[in-house]
Amino acid sequence: MGDEMDQFAFQRFFSALALLALGGAAVLLAARLLRHRIVPAASLVDSFGHFRLEAALLVAAVATAGSLYMSEVAHYRPCHLCWIQRGFMYPLVVVLALAVWRKATGVRRFVVPWAILGLGVSTYHYLLEWFPKQLETNVCDIEVPCSAFPFRLWNFVTLPFMAGCGFLFIISVLLLPLETRRNP
Amino acid sequence: MSNPQPSRSRKAAPIIAVAVAAVLGAVLIAVLTGGKKNDPAAADGSGVAQVRPVTVTGTPLPKLDSKAATDAAVGTKPPELAGQTFTGKAVSIVPGGKTKLVVFVAHWCPHCRAEVPRIVQWMAGGKKPATLDVYAVSTAVDPTAVNYPPSSWFDTEKFIVPTIADDDKQSAAAAWGLPGYPYLVLLNADGTVAARSSGELGSPEAIDAWVRKGLGLS
Prior knowledge:
The complex is a heterodimer of chains A (about 180) and B (about 220).
Chain A: H1 2-34, H2 39-50, H3 52-73, H4 80-102, H5 108-130, H6 132-135, E1 140-141, H7 159-174
Helix pairs in contact in A: 1-2, 1-7, 3-4, 3-7, 4-5, 5-7
Chain B: H1 8-33, E1 55-57, E2 80-84, E3 90-93, E4 99-105, H2 110-124, E5 132-138, H3 150-157, E6 163-165, H4 171-175, E7 180-181, E8 183-187, E9 193-198, H5 204-214
Parallel strand pairs in B: 4-5, 5-6
Antiparallel strand pairs in B: 1-2, 2-3, 4-8, 8-9
């Protein structure tokens, strides 16, 4: 019983982080669009713009830790679409850590398209969970079918949803311009 | 004269510290609190276990190939299954005697969760041939997956038929040639396979039509 409660607590914890990432991504995208019209938006873009690599690294690292927790501790078996999303997320930790270390802001040219591909897979996987018959087949694979999900918290948060939130935040933060205000 | 700006590395230090602390904290909590997998073979306080020993006697059926034009198992006899219900009561599926429909389901499979209510509706609707006995096999039990435990799912859906709780090696499912979930096997009165199907049939009417066609009643 205790283990089930712990597992449920972690589901909630990582689900909450995913929603925070989703909210953060929405705020950053809005701020980016409104930065020339609204001063607080410009300030936010300025502040985050300086640390976009670090912020992206933070989310990629937490997403990776969460993913490893789900498979290695909670024993959820990853399906093949989960593995593809892992393939897009895990390398980002190394690449972004190196970029932070080397101050290589240009890395976003490669990371953003990479994360967009990851977001695409997450989106497809999430839709597959809702519409398995329409998008896949009418049968569950004998191993680990992608349409089966170990949990759906609050009736909408599942593992690909969490991954998608992570990718979306990374894309949003890396799309921030470095400077919005120029010195006269 | 502009104000001196803190260096970028000094600005980044708190963010990196938060990142490292968040990851380490998550991993630490995970390691300290998580871990053990529920044992589906262990009976709960009321004697209910989700997997039970199964004995298979006879020649296994070949795995169903849904894409093949004909099913090689049709006309052959499946092996006899001797197992237990979730509560430990003995159940056997012995080919022959009466026509039988055996439904293999996995509790976490969304297609099984969609199909079971249709089977229940078909049975309750009075369309089921009177001479047909319906059995279920709960297989591929995963205590970490959704809709666990299957015994509660069966109760909720009022899927009340003689049910074998398959073992953790899925011996019953493998012996009957299961290719995916859900999986239906229809047996003639002489015990031979009349038809097999894997995947949702989609409606009580479709289930009825498939059964009647398989048994030559339509």
